[in-house]
Amino acid sequence: MVLTACGAEDDKDSERPSTPSGVTAQAGSATSVHVMWAKSADNKAVTGYEVYRKGAKVAALPAGKHMVDIDGLAPETAYSFTVRARDAAGNLSAPSAAISVTTPAPAPDDRKAPTTPARVKGRAEGATTVSLTWQRATDDTGVTSYDIYQEDSRVHSVSGDATTARVTGLRAGTVYTFTVRARDAAENSSPDSNSVDLTTPSAPGDESPSTAPTDLEATVRKGSIELKWTPPRTGAPVKEHQLHLNGEPVTTIVWGAEPPAGTATYTMTVTDRPGTRYSIKLRAKLPDGKWGDFSAQRTVVVR
Fold first, then answer.
1. How does residue 58 score in pLDDT terms, banded at 50, 70 and 90?
2. How far apart are the C-alpha atoms of 192 and 133, rounded to whole Å?
3. Is the pLDDT confidence value at 138 over 50?
4. CB 3.0–4.6 Å: which of 107, 128, 179, 272 could bond 192 by disulfide?
């Protein structure tokens, strides 16, 4: 009797992911280009993306990333970019449509940053998307791009002519804090705009209330930072909050007696030199002993 192996060949994944769509390329400076695209689909799962310049691969990213900055380019030069999706079996999609972009001229000895984008506003457009608007910044040589930051990470860039942006790929039922910075051809960036807190709607069927502290305020004093916030409603008094600075937990705020009703406050002593930047956020310990969701983030500069 002859035995034949089966299944291995049948299970081999030979189907290519779909071609990335919505590819855009925006010159962020005289030597860099920001490339973005929409996510692809696959019969199993997309595991990454590859970005090409004239057929040569210049970047490889995981599946969760849909943007990349290509640096080290020449000023006043035309470039063309394509994007391909990759799956776990190594199948590559067809290249996307080629997107052309020309880097601007450099600005010699330009050390002056653009002004701060003003009156940034936003709204959620569903469980995974938000839209932002702002007033134009000014610059002595011209704004080349606006960079959108979620907390301290740049998540999107648009052209210097734009005053709106859409950020996709977010999580449902999550609070996000966005700021905008203007950038010129010499890579000078403006200070942060005002921050905007946006909460994406919960997924359908999820009726659970938010566990994030709200209304966080951070006021800088000489030698201290005063915090004020509203603890989440959990069905029982919140006795502990965890304070994070620059993404790292630094202390747990515990009330020895009955925790305050309504607004909570905490004063943090700081000894760092003036100009030190802090990113601050909180989360509460829930009645079941687990930590809840993070509050919106606040960024302050020590006096």
1. very high
2. 14
3. yes
4. 179
